[in-house]
Amino acid sequence: MFDICLLVLGIILFIIKLKKEKLLSRTKTQMIFKNAITVFLTFLIVGILNYIIIKKSEDIDLTNEKIHSLTDKSFKILSKIDSKLELTVFAQRENWDPYLKLLELYERGSELVSINAVDPVKSPLIASQYGVESNGQILIKFKGKSEVLKKVNELGLTNKILKLTVSKRRNLCAVNGHGEYNIGTTTNNGLSFLNKQIQSSSYALKEIELRDDLNDCDVLLFIGLKSDLLKEDVLSITNFIKKGKSILIALGPNFSEYKRTNAYKFLKSLGVEVKNSVVIDRLSSVHRVDATINVVDNYSKHPIVSEFKEKAYMPLNLNLGFNESDTDISALFSSKAFPASWAEVDLESLKKGKATYDTKDIKGPNHLAVAIDNKESFYRAVIFGSDQFILNAYQGQSSNFNIFFNSLDWLLGEEEIISLDRANLSNQSFSLSTPAVNTIFYIVIIFFPFILFLIAGFVYFRNKKL
After folding, report:
1. pTM score of the predicted model
2. Which candidate, 386, 380, 388, places its Cα nearest to that of 194?
3. CA–CA dist 121, 129 (Å, integer)
4. Would you tell me which CATH number, out of the four given (3.90.1170.50, 3.30.1130.10, 3.40.50.150, 3.40.30.10), belongs to the domain 72-162?
5. Cα separation of 195 and 181, whole Å?
6. How far from chain centre, in Å, is Cα 148?
7. pLDDT, position 15
8. What is the rounded CA–CA span in Å between residue 243 and residue 122?
C-alpha cells in the first residue's frame, strides 16, 4: 500500500509540473492525458479492491444447502469446547489446500481451535508418533487425548471432536425379540445405515433382549415392534424408566393377526392412546409419493423440532392420541387437517389399495409423533407412529434422521446440541487449488482489463481518423 501511495503522489506532482509548463493547455494533450488518467485510476481501483479482498477474505456460502459452511450441529459442538482443540492435517504439501479449507471453518467457529499442517513425507517421525498411516488424515488433540480421522469430511471430523469432548459415551440399546428391525441388515428393510451413523457419533449402540442386564443402557430403542410384549417385558421397561432413564419407540401399524395388547396397554400407561390405523395424507401426491406416506412440513414448538423447516417423509403412520391437557406430553408433528388427512382403521381395505373416509375413521389432524417428559419419575420417552422412516430405504431423507438424532439428544438431556441439520455424508466440500485460484486471478484481474484496454484503444484511434 505504501508503494501505491508513492505512485499516486508522483502522478500528482507530474500533473502540477505539466500545468506549470502549460502543456495541458493543448486540447490534444488534454484528451490523451484524461484517457490515460481514467485507465490508470481504473487499474488502481481494481488493484486496491483485489488487495483488500485477499487480505480480508471471508467465505460466503451461496448454496441452498450451505455445503461450504459448517452445519448447525458442528457449531453447537464447537461452542461447548472448554479447552484448546488442535487439528492437524497430515498430507503432502501440494495437497494441503482442500484439507485446510475445511479446518479453517472449524477455526473460525471457535477461538479455542487451532489448525496446522504436516507433510508426512518430510516429517515421518511425527506421523508415526500419532499412528498416521497414510496421506490425507487429520489428527485431533484435546486435553491430552487424540483421535485420527482417516476419511476426511465434516461428518467424520465433527463426530471425532464430539467423542473427544464428551465426558461419557452414552449407551443406546436396540431391543430384540419382538420382530424389531435388525441393525446389521443392509437391505432396504434394515437399519445398517442408522447403525453406521450412530457408531460414528458420540453414542455406542448394541442389541439386547429385555431379559438381559439393562443397567448399562441409557436409552432403550424399540424400532419395529411386530409382536406383542410379554408381561415380563412390560415390567422390565417400567422398572427401567422408573430409574429416570429414557425410551424411544417406533411403532408402525399392525397388519398381522397377532394383537399387541400389552404394548398398547403400556403406552396407555404413559398417557399415549394407540389406535391401530394408517394415517392418510391426500396431499402427498403433490410430492409424488403414496398417500400412506405423510409429508411433514409443519412442526410443534417442542425443542426436538422447534426450528425445523425441512420436509420429513413418514411412511405408514399410526394415529397417536393423548390428553391435550396433559402437560407432560407434547406432539412433535401431526398430519394435515381433515379432509386432507384422516386415520384409516379399515386396514383390510387398505391392503387392497382402497382408502375412503367413513365414520369409523379418525379425522385429521392426527398426531404422528409425541414426546413425554414425566416430571414425577423423571423419565423421558419419544413415540413415533412410523417404524420405517429411518430404514435404509430412507437414508436419502436427511431430515428423517435429523429428527431421530435430535430425539436422542433430548432423551439424554443434551438439548444444547439439538440442531436443524447434521454433517451429512453426501455433502462434500469443494475448494479450489492454488493453481486454479491463480488462473482466476490472471483472467479476472489481468486478461479482462487488458482486453477492455485494447477495445478502448481501437475505438479511440478509429474516432480519431473520423
Report:
1. 0.68
2. 388
3. 14
4. 3.40.30.10
5. 11
6. 22
7. 57
8. 55
